Each structure stands twice: as structure tokens, then as C-alpha cells.
Amino acid sequence: MTAVRDLLDRQLGRVTMYRLVTIVLALLAVVMIIFTAAGTFKDPFTVPGQLMTLAVLLVASYVSNRLLGLAWRITPHAESSIITALLLFFMFWPSEEADDLLWLGIAAVLANASKYVLAWRGRHVFNPAAAGAVLVVVVQDLVGRDLSINPTWWIAAEKLLPFVAVAVLLVLWRTRRLDVGLLFVVVAGALLIIGLADSSDQSFVDLAKVTAYSYPVVFMAGFMVTEPLTLPPRRLQQLAVATVMAVATGWAIFSPVIGVGPISVGVLFLSPEIALLLGNLVAFAFARRRGLTFELEGTRQLTPETHELTFRSRRPVTFTPGQYVELTVPHAGVDSRGSRRTFSISSAPDEDGRVSVALRVPEQSSSFKRALLALEPGHRVHGTGIGGDFVLPADPSVPVLLVAGGIGITPFLSQLRHEGTRNAVLVYGASSPDEVPFTEELAGVRVVLVCPERPSSLPEGWTYVEAPFLSAEIIAGAVPDLGHRAAYVSGPPAMVNAVRADLAKRCKSLRTDYFTGY
Q1: Is residue 290 a contact partner of residue 150, using CB atoms and an 8 Å limit?
Q2: Domain at 2-286: CATH code
Q3: What's the pTM?
Q4: Omega prior to 44 cis, within 30 of 0
Q5: How many C-beta atoms surround the C-beta of residue 351 within 10 A?
Q6: What's the pLDDT tens digit per position in 406-464?
Q7: Which CATH code of 3.30.70.20, 3.40.640.10, 3.60.21.10, 2.40.30.10 fits the domain covering 292-387?
């Protein structure tokens, strides 16, 4: 099982979450076109119609996103516009009619406009594809047009379900939101099955098949419900939002069971896209997400491959030590790692709005890291938000074990800088004595350094264990009171997977933080 985990993490970590979503959505489109060409899907599906629809959505979404970015004087995230177009492709019937194609293009424009207009302090409130799908219906009604362009979610089809399920699994695994997606599928699926059973004498298995084949529950779970920029920052909040979306998705079918009629306002009725928007509003109520603008104050090199960058925010920044920030750095020659990345915050909360991040930059690094290090003091970057649940117990008397591999030390640095008096032991695995950053900051902290070679000197409070890599046995030998400590493990997936199962048995509790792709 660990080998499978390592393989998945290693392969999926080669690309960003956004690039992975783009790739799997594009592959789903290719699968559908192949099925259509083979005659598996009939009218209204034709290969020319699908290609024309896809082309119109991609062009309209990309161009409108660029123009809106110019109007708002920001550099737009090009990949997000491609994802929006692909999502809309699976939500509307394809067409070869010029009038239909025009309105599909309008849906893409409205979707991208929602990111700029329906926004709060630089951060969009609603899922763009869902917003575009709703707005195009409203606009058609306002101009007196027949609602021929209406969301159908044709992606919910028996032949496509296996491909959709695999794609969703990959995305949820990569984003570490399997629990959020699964909760949505279970709750929405249960409500739909109960609603269908009230008017049918089919078996449970048949009803489950009808639900899976006729409703876009699985697709929504992977690509819409867990969309990161419209989720609240904490996991319990995310689960609550997924539940709201699930209930709203199944309500139209389930409501007659309890004697309540369907909900509608004008031409709009409670549908999957409306359910997504309602969940987005709940997420907004949990945490008023805002965009952040950071100005680089300075960069310092800590080791041959490790650098720390300190930014100052133009607005107050509130975060809990252990959380992460997502940064966007537009640059030329963007590679598969993309122009948007998440980093654990290495600094403690600062009243002046300072936020520091540390990163490892090997010789063969991504275009993003090279662009980030090329920034000069005064340059500005955009932060799409702060979130995460990798935080220490609220009770400061709870002793903790902190296990870090490589650059996984960054969230612990933030926590130790903020709570220097907590009973904490840091077990730190390093690849070489030259790649041990933050020795000055961690002087006096109880640190167990695990490294193939002994450094020339060790800071106060540090002990050394000679070993090529971290293991649960080494940790247990160095920290004999594991059973009384809450354990936190941060680092590359292979390291985390190697120690998590054994530590979970030995420690009071366990929480992990995967540095995928580093």
C-alpha cells in the first residue's frame, strides 16, 4: 500500500493541481469525442459539434479572461480560464448552430467576468463555471430568448462514469481532499436514491446505478465542490460546505419525500449549479476570503539549495502557524509546474503584515522557482489565500512531536517561532549536513538531527543520529515518550508515508502535511 501511495504521489507531484485538472478534463473530452466518432453517443452529439463547441468555449474563456485582467490591471491566471472552458463543455449540449455557439461563448465570458465582478477584495466568491452556467440562463430570459442554452450536465453518462471516476480520484488524491469529495458523493447520492425510491419500485442497486449514471455527483465532487479558491480554509468548514452542496443537489428529488415542493425563483430552480453557488456563499460566510498583494522585502540564502523570501502585505494578514499561502508569479516560459504554487509559511504572525516562505531550489528547478528567486525587493506578487489545518493543539500544555523531512521544516519553524515555550521535540531528517537551514533560529530548541553525515557543529539543544533517512524506529529511539505526544509529520510524500502508520500506533495522535512535488 505504501508503494502505491509513493508511486501516486511521485507521479502526480510532477505537475501542479491546476495542470493535473486541465490534463484530466482534456482527456475526458478526448474520450467523449472518440465515443461519439465510434457511434456510442448519438444526437445531439456529433464530432463537428463537439469540436466547434470546445473551440468556442476555449477561445471565449481565454480571451475574455485576458481582457478582463487588463481592465482590472492584474495578470490573469491563464490555466484557470482553460479549466473553466472545459467544465462548461461538460455542462451544456454541444452544437453546430451559430446562435447556440454564440450563447455558449457568452456563458464562458460571464463565467470569467464573475471572477472579477462577483468578488470580494480581489478574490472571487463563486465557482466561475457554475456562475457562468446560471448567468447565461438569466441573461437569455432577460432578452426574451428561448432557453435553449441550459445546463444539462451530460457528463453524467454510464459509458463515461469509469473515466470520470478515475479522473476524480486522481484530482482528489492530489489535492488531499478525498474526504471532502467522498462526503459530497455519499450525502448527495443517498438523498437522490431516497427520492427516486419514493416513486419507483426498483432495487437499491438499480437506483444507485440510475443515480450514478444520471446525476453529475461524482464529476462535481472532483472538479467543482473541491475547487480550492471557493473553499473555506479549514477542513471542518470544507466538510460543512460539501454537505450543504450535497443536500442542495439532491433536494429537488428528495424534497417530495418529506412533503416539500421544489424551490425555484423565476427561471431558476434548485439544480447542481445553483447548489454549488449556495455552497460558495456558505464558504464565504465561514471565512471572508480575500486576495492578498505581497511586496518582496528581501531574500536570503540559507543553504546551497534553500532560500527564504520575506514579503510585506498591503493589508493585514491573519494566519495560524502551520498554515500555507498560495502565490501567483506570472512569468515567461511557464513549465508544467505552472505559475501558481502553495508554500507553508515559515514566519510567525506579524503585526506589520510580514510573511516569509522558504523553498528548496535544486539545480534543475521549475520555472516558477526561478522566477520567484529573480524577484527584486519591491516587486509584487499576488496571493490567492491562506489556509490549512496543519496547526498545533489549541491547548499549549499538550506535548508535541514534530517530524520534518527537508523543506518540510517550514511549518514547524513558524510554530516554534510563535510558541517557543511549548514542550516540543523536532526530529529533522536532512540529506546532507550542508542542507540544514534555520540552525540559528532553532538554537535552544530540542532537535534530533538525522543525517548521513555529522555536521561540523551542532547548535545548543541539538543531538545527532547518523542514518541515511528517517524511520519510525529512529524516531522512537530518540524520543522515548512518544505515547504522550501529539505527532505532526511534514515533508516529501515518500518520507511521510514511510513513518505515518507506525507513528499513528505509537503516538497520542497524528497529523500529516505532504510537500507534493518538492
Answers
A1: no
A2: 1.10.3430
A3: 0.87
A4: yes
A5: 7
A6: 899 999 999 999 987 899 999 999 999 999 999 998 988 999 999 999 998 898 889 99
A7: 2.40.30.10
